[in-house]
Amino acid sequence: MSDKTWTTDHALMQAALDASLFAVTVLDPTGQIIYCNELAAKLLGLTRSTAESRAYDAPQFKHTDMDGGPWPDEKQPFVRVMATGEAVHGVEHKIERPDGRCIALRINGAPVKNERSEIKWLVFSFEDITERRGIEEALRQAQKMEAIGRLAGGVAHDFNNLLTAILSFASLARSEPTCLDEHLDGIVDAAERAAQLTRQLLAFGRQQIAQPISFDARDEVTATVRLIERVLGEDVALELNLCRGPCWLLMDPNQLQQVLLNLAVNARDAMPNGGRLTLSIERGDSEHVLLRVSDTGHGMDQETLQKAFEPFFTTKAPDKGTGLGLSTSHGIITQAGGSIALFSEPGRGTKVEISLPLAAAPSLFPPRARGATQTRESRGRILLVEDDPAVQRAALRSLERLGYQVRAAGSGVEALALLQAEASDLIICDLVLPGMSGLDLVERAAQEHPQLRVLFVSGYSRELNRTEPHPFLAKPYTPESLGERVASLLAER
Fold first, then answer.
1. Residue 305 CA, distance from chain mean position
2. Which residues contact 242 (CB under 8 A, 6 or more apart)?
3. Strands of 472-474's sheet, edge to edge?
4. In which domain, by residue range, is 115 found?
5. DSSP letter string over 422-434?
6. For the chain, how many structural domains are there in total?
7. Cβ-count burial of 463 within 10 angstroms (0-12 exposed, 13-18 middle, 19+ buried)?
8. What is the pLDDT confidence band of residue 277, given thresholds at 50, 70 and 90?
9. The pTM is what?
10. What is the DSSP letter of 449?
11. How far is it, in rounded angstroms, from Cα 482 to Cα 489?
12. Are strands 119-128 and 23-27 parallel, antiparallel or unpaired?
């Protein structure tokens, strides 16, 4: 230990910490752990002597954020206490135990100062919140799936309409070759609308890492209107009021969609006999965008209003909701740097007012990916790994037309055999493959071909975060988007 006086001069305090119901560690100002009670050692999967031989930033402690991403040193409770001289409360992150199990911790920490106000020790208590976070996440997903279940009938109707259009235009293209371009335009339009609908549903229903981008709030609201109408049903009218000028936001548009659908679900439940939902967007001041969602439902009294944002609080029947819609929406808006407020009275409906920071407009002419316009000149050898025959055939044809040498495989095993026979410059690999996942394939391929560039593609991006640092192209994609991405990657050689 770096400070022997801890065990000699503070035996009584040590005995008290040993008996604590909380996991407790004590660090010296260098970050060395000089005391670890039995509960803390057990939680970390270490012996006390092992824990007390390490510093907080020892490489054996693999710290990540709650999503498994990097955990910067400046966010460490130790660093924050040393920098400010003040206590920290409720810091949450994950740590990997020696047995490989990742646990979520909630940490509180405070300095112990001498008579000169210098930090002598730092005391930290922490608890394992892994199970609690798992339950909360499961309930949040249940809340999402509740809304998706309500969308299912309407979505099926929309997809059947789109399929009807695609099949009809395809039949017309065969029978009226003189109007081929017109019929193909109809097919492409219907397919793009189907793709957009799929993206919206997947974004709302899946677990995902927030990916902030700059977008016009009016566009996202307009794109979500169809889903909102399906949530509301036929008895609730939707009124849309959009400001004339652009309202740029910097956040994950899928999360804004989730907020709007959560509010639509609540509004619909508050209007069982029908009513009107009004959604408006306007510029607040010079720095904010205002979104207002108002309904003509039964409203809320002051007691209910004060608890509305509390997790798991609901006035609905047990089988009608999780009580997480408003709390989740509050978290999303707060994370984006905004605020959300509720206004309601019994019998007079409810108004939700959301204020979000106005973002700078994106460049009208974003830089084109290097090499994107030179696909014919940037020839390369490509291994295409796709198990769907139709998708494989279309992608193969698209890449060959751009001048690339392309070999195709339908499985990971087949792909490895092709790589063994001849090297490639780029592998385009579906994440979901029979027998061997795309991630496993790339990992094995990298052992023999460390310079091999990788482009993952999938229509199921639950494990999108695991594809890093390799780029990802979501399905459905077009020959143009595939060609641009390939050209950009090969131009980096």
1. 29
2. 218, 221, 222, 280, 281
3. 405-409, 381-385, 426-430, 453-458, 472-474
4. 5-128
5. S--SEEEEESS-S
6. 3
7. middle
8. very high
9. 0.44
10. -
11. 11
12. antiparallel
> 254 and 141, same structural domain?
yes
Q: What is the CATH number of the domain that holds 92?
A: 3.30.450.20
Mean pLDDT of 447-453: 89
SS3 of 318-363: CCCCCCCHHHHHHHHHHHCCCEEEEEECCCCCEEEEEEEECCCCCC
CA gap 353, 342 in Å, rounded = 6
> Could you tell me if 311 and 278 lie in one domain?
yes
Q: Check pLDDT > 90 for residue 308.
A: no
- CATH number for the domain spanning 299: value is 3.30.565.10
Q: What is the tens place of the pLDDT at every residue in 83-94?
A: 999 999 989 988
For 291, how many CA atoms within 13 A lie in the half-sphere containing its CB?
Answer: 24
Element (H, E) at 144: helix 130-175
Do 158 and 232 share a structural domain? Answer: yes
Residue 457, SS3 per DSSP: strand
Please give the structure tokens belonging to residue 3.
Answer: 């400070």
Q: Answer whether 150's CB lies under 8 Å from 136's CB.
A: no
Tell me whether residue 67 is in a domain.
yes
Cα radius of gyration (the chain): 28
Instruction: Check if the beta carbon of residue 106 is closer than 8 Å to that of residue 126.
Output: yes
Do the Cβ atoms of 381 and 421 come closer than 8 Å? no
Do residues 123 and 147 share a domain?
Answer: no
55 secondary structure, DSSP code: B
The pLDDT of residue 312 is above 60: no
- In this predicted structure, what is the pLDDT of residue 315? 61
- Residue 327 pLDDT greater than 90, yes or no: no
pLDDT in tens, 25-81: 999 999 999 989 988 998 888 898 888 888 888 888 888 888 778 888 888 999 999
Tell me which residue has tokens 């025959």.
389
Q: Which tokens in the block code for residue 283?
A: 């510029």
Q: Closest Cα to residue 108, out of 135, 129, 133?
A: 129
